[in-house]
Amino acid sequence: MGQGMRLLECPQCEEKSLFDEWVIRRDGSPTQAGRPADFKLWGCLACGQPQLWSEPVDSDDSNEPRRLWPQVTALAPGIPASIAREMVEARACFDANLYTAAAVMVRRTLEGMCIEQGTQKKALFQALQEFRDNGKIEGRLFDWAQALRVLGNQGAHFSKESVSREDAADALSLA
């Protein structure tokens, strides 16, 4: 791999891609850890999505390079890619202050989970009841899932009330 190239995980492409170094700037001010850092902007060669990284300039290898933007929320291993994609989009909506859209995406995540788990019920309400009745989820988790479903419905159907930031944040945490 040539100088100025790096293999990074691209949130846009959802896979490892080759990135080209676009800009290198040296900022002499200390970082939060009290060390100066290089800030590097990398551009995905596949889709053009940029990433901003802070890289330490001293020889202390305990201070690893760190992605500053875009921030990617880590999900638990083993989550199917289709479900993870919905959750990532829900988070992106929240980060863009699109709280109603975030609630709808959380509901889609919940619906996708039901499909991945093999429900035969088309309606989300019935699918969640099936999971509770079959012992796949317990009572409190069922209640939380129903609350996410109701909030997602509020977002999906036109009304005079939009989804609040706090409700969207809670929905993301519960999901």
What does this structure look like?
By secondary structure, the chain is of the alpha+beta class. It folds into two domains: 5-69; 81-174, no CATH class. Helix content is 41%, strand content 22%. The protein is built from five helices and five strands; from the N terminus they run βββββααααα. Strands 1-2-3-4-5 form a five-stranded antiparallel sheet, with no helix packed on it. A hairpin with a 4-residue loop joins strand 1 and strand 2. Helix 1 (81-95) runs antiparallel to helix 2, helix 1 (81-95) runs antiparallel to helix 5 and helix 2 (99-116) crosses helix 4. The radius of gyration is 21 Å and the shape is elongated. The two termini are 40 Å apart. The model is unreliable at 30-35 (pLDDT under 50).
Element string (H = helix, E = strand): EEEEEHHHHH
Overall tally of structural domains: 2
Number of strands: 5
Biggest sheet statistics: 5 strands, antiparallel
What is the C-alpha radius of gyration, as a whole number of Å? 21 Å
- Strand adjacency order, main sheet: 1-2-3-4-5
Specify the number of helices: 5
Helical residue percent band: 40-55%
Strand content: 15-25%
Q: Please give the alpha-carbon distance between the first and last residues.
A: 40 Å
Helical/strand content category: alpha+beta
Low-confidence stretches: 30-35
Sum up the overall morphology in one term: elongated
Q: Report the mean per-residue pLDDT as an integer.
A: 81
Q: How are the SSEs ordered, and which strands pair?
A:
Elements: E1 5-10, E2 15-27, E3 37-44, E4 50-56, E5 66-69, H1 81-95, H2 99-116, H3 124-133, H4 139-156, H5 165-174
Antiparallel strand pairs: 1-2, 2-3, 3-4, 4-5
